[in-house]
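Protocol step 6 of 9: fold each sequence in the batch and record its structure tokens directly after the sequence line. For illustration, a two-sequence batch is reproduced in full.

Sequence one:
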Amino acid sequence: MVKEESNTKVQPKSEYFDAAKNIRLVPRFCEKTVDKYFPQFEKIAHNLNWPKPYWTTMLQSVFEGKAAEIYSALPSEKSSDYDTVKQEVLKAYELVPEAYRQKFRSYKKFDSQTYVEFAREKEDLFDKWLTSKKTDNNFDNLRQLMLLEEFKQCVHLDLKTHLDDKTVGTIHDAAVISDNYTLSHKRSFKGQNVNTSSGNYKNQSTERTDSKPVAQNKSQSSL
């Protein structure tokens, strides 16, 4: 006779995370080094196996200044999502890719700086820009980043704003979005100046606007 198996199964012991006990291990938040804070926090959280749903609980205990204000202003469903909180805080401190790009491009040497110090600061700003864009030291990613920046500098301001609002990874994607935007708005931007607010180029049209024929050079021999 086969012995019937019991319907009662041993349930695995539920994991319990004591947030209050671990809060003391959360690194101190400093508004002057926000860009370095999140990688440091994430490294500690991974090493100590903190469940990600608790990360925002840990963060809010150390947030101060503008970060605390941003966190308090978020609705409950967003304030419990770590990636959303991180993005909103970085945005508040202007530590998003576009801000890094502008800082890198606009940074000039101070009279009190040596050229070595200036070069080091430029390099640091460039690295922050690349890191925020997650190029991962990949040549093709870097290539597309440079091409996209150049493309945006050559288009009209409202089109650039439209592209900035989109998640664009390649210059081809930017071109397709730009063509669709132009068609939907029934505009060609012909003869309009491109965005000049960030040192962008001015459109130099090569088309002739007059209807007069070009006079033939007298030095040319007649056929």
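Sequence two, same batch, same settings:
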Amino acid sequence: MLESTPMLVGDVIAGKYRIDSVAGEGGMGIVYEAEHVILRQRVAVKAMLPGLLSSADALDRFSREASAIARITCEHVVRVTDAGTLPNGAPYLVMEYLDGSDLADVLSRRGPLPPSEVVDYALQALEGLAHVHAARVVHRDLKSANLFLARLHDGRRVVKLLDFGIALAPDLLSSDDRAIVGSPSYMSPEQLRRDALDTRTDLWSIGVVMYELLAGEVPFTGSLSQVIAKILEKRPVLLNEQRPAVPPALAEVVARCLERDPDARWPSTLELARALAPHGTGQWREAVGRIERALANVTPRREPRRFETLDTALQALDDDAARPRCATTQPPASDAAETERIGAAFGPTMPIAMPTVPAAPLDARPGVPAPAIAPALALAREAEWTLRILMIDDSTFVLGVYSQILVKAGFDVRTTTSVREFDDLLARWQPHLVLMDVQMPEVSGDELCRRVKARFKATVPVVFVSDLPRAQLADRAAAAQADAFLSKTSDWNGFVDFVRNICAITYSPEHLP
């Protein structure tokens, strides 16, 4: 047992994850092999090291990892399914369990790899990276040890991107965030200089990984100071000179990744993938098209619609749900029963499958006055609109993850673990939407929901966000007259869409971020 390992082996956390063994330990956290005791599924649980709990920076980085991965759905990016806080205060992530080994281990066992095999691995990594970049995230720590060759249930082996602990949106990178955190041998010159970073810094790192897998070592070696000096000042030895078996054309593709000037590198994952594809086995050639589609979906948003009343909004959602969906966005048949009217608010361009409180038929709904003058709305000027969301939970880590996701989506968010502060924010800050846990140590979510309803009547929606079983959560939401409910273990990629749709029903949608 590692000395820094919390005493978790054999325990069941959150009432559902049984910790079976320690899979490994890194600089920030411990990864456990575990099992979901209800679903009987293998999972990996990553918990922060106890010694880092007093570090605000470490907590932020751990939270950042969760929020970065949560918004990405791609076969080549490790999937996060849950998050929470352990009794000792350490945050944890629950991720898909991966069977296999990272590319650093593959290299150490086999030595330099065949060029076509390396290209296939690179194309898969670029497909995952395209989804990361489409989410406006820079990974910043790509290396062979963070590219995992996973064996899937169908027997296929695919590369998955791991470890998003220092990932961040380029526009959020402060000078502190640009500090040298990561693996220097794989860092770009601008990262070492603490300059502004964009997605091209990840392409440098991919180039280093390809060079390493082809040549058997990274392009810049030596002591730490020597490595940094070489990266900043020297060009690497050409791959085909280091290893003659590498075709010169492929060596040139990798060399362009390692240009010190970002403007001289490949401009995006798509251009790099197009240049690499002819050198692979052909098995992953179609990744180029998938990369192009991923990058094409970065910005489009449907124009918001204005609803005069709650009933007309619900009728519009009914109409949307009745329309045929595009085959590429249709939820799986197993999810269809879980997809409620609320998930269709933005049509086939933004499908979600989020469980909500089922709505009654239109003719059975009680009369609800249209929220024409919700208290917070009457105070705002048209040009100053930002929808305000108040969230209360007893886990600061959960609050950190959800608030980061919502802030990046353009919402103004306040979070608290204190009931007293919650009441104060209700009165002083006047939120447009309230998200709350059901099981709070001081007072139940049911009581807090009643307080919100008593203050704002029907004008401020309340959503229960909990890890209770769905049926139990639905009963609690109905009893407290909450407007909707959402499981913490639901698809995080649809979380922002879910919030938008709730707001679109209650407020004028042109003010959605």
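Proceed to step 7 once all outputs are recorded. Observation for sequence two: The first strand starts at residue 12 and ends at 13.
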